[in-house]
Write a structure and sequence with these properties.
By secondary structure, this protein is an alpha+beta fold. Among the domains are: 98 residues, TATA-Binding Protein (2-Layer Sandwich), CATH 3.30.310; 207 residues, Alpha Horseshoe (Leucine-rich Repeat Variant), CATH 1.25.10. Helix content is 42%, strand content 9%. It contains 13 helices and six strands. The protein is globular. It starts with 102 loop residues before the first strand and ends with a helix. About 12% of the residues have low confidence.
Length: 442
């Protein structure tokens, strides 16, 4: 048996198996007599001492100091201080804007560029002018006379706020009218804002709608600047397929875009004539392909694109989303009925689809007209639908009368339509026409 020679260790080396000798701690003594220092905390009580409150009784909360400039005294305006209370009661909304007093503009308050100073006018006079302007332009409004605020929404679903303030200038006291856009088309808002500010100063409130067609001396294709330009005709099938694809998408924004596309494809102001005619036929008399019409009337009847689906219930904007989808669907139907009435195809559709008109279309129209106080914009579109139907042919007029159109219009007229000028004119015209037809039948 061979043995390996043992390697000799050099000085300073230590074998792996050897252990370090224990340290001698006998010379180290613990430190004693040193205390840990802690920071000294000091506090000062700010404010007045509170008196003891009996158990079970709430203490009195002092009111907040006034915000903004002090109240302006004297003058023509009944200005009041901008002061809030901890327990402010909800203010009742009214149908007319009658502001008796306004608050001063708070300090460091950014005023919108869409504002105007109205001199030599009482707050009640300014609010009355604006209220009449909103009625003439058929703008839906909810008034708060106590806070001098009007919440408005125009037919294009543009939401904005109007608020009155009191301010002091070198010439004296005046009323500041501020119009603030919340959401919607800025172009549509600019037209209404300009008319509102002009009316606040006592000017003329134009009732011209932004949706009116610009009158041209000749068609666009015959203009001299476009001669020799190759014009590609729009593909009707591709637009309808795109609208159906967007409506079938599970995303809510895609559904909104699809409904807007369908509404614009039935509007002669936004689409080519061949696109308008074919899109209108797909809604009124679709034939075998009824996908678009089913989607439109599913929204109008059930509040969703499919009858078995629930309406959209999101955390924010729930009512606004549903209301806008409903309004776009009604606008598409109103455009389609107007187009088919002009080319005569609506008369044939009423005869061939009498059951569909009686069971689905007319009930949807009557329901929206009956909600004129809550949704005047939808009621106006429904009135346009009814006008196209009853004036298309005699059989359609008789069908509407048999389903109770006269009674529904009488109820709406008796409830008052002064808050929406376009709706009032449309309903009265239809009612006069139906009454004349009833006298002929009798």
């Amino acid at each position: 048996m061979s043995t390996r020679p043992r390697k000799e260790m050099k000085a300073g080396e230590r074998s792996l198996g050897s252990r370090r000798p224990p340290m001698d701690l006998s010379g180290i003594r613990p430190v004693t007599g040193v205390a840990e220092q802690e920071p000294v905390m000091r506090s000062v009580a700010m404010g007045l001492p509170r008196s003891p409150t009996p158990r079970g009784m709430p203490g009195k909360i002092p009111g907040r100091p006034p915000i903004g400039i002090p109240p302006l005294k004297g003058g023509l305006h009944g200005l009041k201080p901008n002061q809030t209370t901890p327990h402010e009661k909800p203010v009742k909304k009214t149908e007319t804007w009658a502001v008796s007093a306004v608050e001063p503009v708070p300090n460091d308050f950014p005023i919108e560029r869409t504002s105007r100073h109205v001199k030599d006018a009482e707050p009640s006079e300014v609010s009355s002018r604006i209220s009449k302007c909103l009625q003439m332009r058929s703008i839906e409004a909810k008034y708060d006379n106590e806070r001098a605020v009007a919440k408005c929404r125009n037919p294009d679903f543009v939401s904005f706020r109007i608020r009155l303030y009191g301010c002091k200038q070198e010439e004296g006291l005046c009323v500041l009218v501020e119009v603030q856009r919340r959401k919607g088309s800025s172009q549509s808002f600019a037209r209404d804002c300009r008319a509102i500010l002009e009316a606040a100063e006592g000017g003329d409130c134009s009732t011209a709608s932004d949706s009116e067609v610009i009158c041209l001396k000749c068609p666009v294709s015959q203009m001299a600047c476009l001669q020799g330009v190759d014009v590609v005709a729009p593909d009707v099938a591709s637009e309808e397929e795109l609208a159906a694809f967007l409506l079938d998408d599970p995303r809510l924004d895609s559904n909104m875009l699809g409904m807007e596309l369908l509404k614009n494809s039935t509007d002669p102001r936004h689409s080519a004539p061949n696109v308008v005619v074919l899109s209108a036929e797909h809604i009124v008399s679709p034939g075998r392909e009824t996908v678009l019409r089913d989607n439109v009337f599913s929204i109008l009847q059930h509040g969703s694109l499919k009858p078995d689906q629930r309406p959209y219930t999101g955390p924010e904007g729930e009512e606004d989303y549903n209301e806008k989808m409903h309004n776009l669907a009604l606008a598409a139907v109103a455009n389609a009925l107007a187009i088919t009435k002009e080319d005569g195809s609506l008369k044939k559709a009423v005869v061939d689809q009498k059951e569909w008109f009686s069971r689905i279309l007319l009930p949807v129209i009557f329901e929206n007209i009956g909600r004129a106080q809550e949704s005047p914009h939808d009621a106006f579109l429904a009135a346009k639908c009814l006008k196209s139907v009853v004036m298309s042919c005699e059989s359609a007029t008789q069908l509407a009368i048999e389903n109770g159109a006269v009674m529904i219009l009488e109820d709406v007229i008796s409830s008052g339509l002064d808050h929406h000028l376009l709706l009032r004119e449309e309903v009265r015209e239809i009612y006069s026409f139906l009454m004349s037809q009833c006298r002929q039948y009798n």
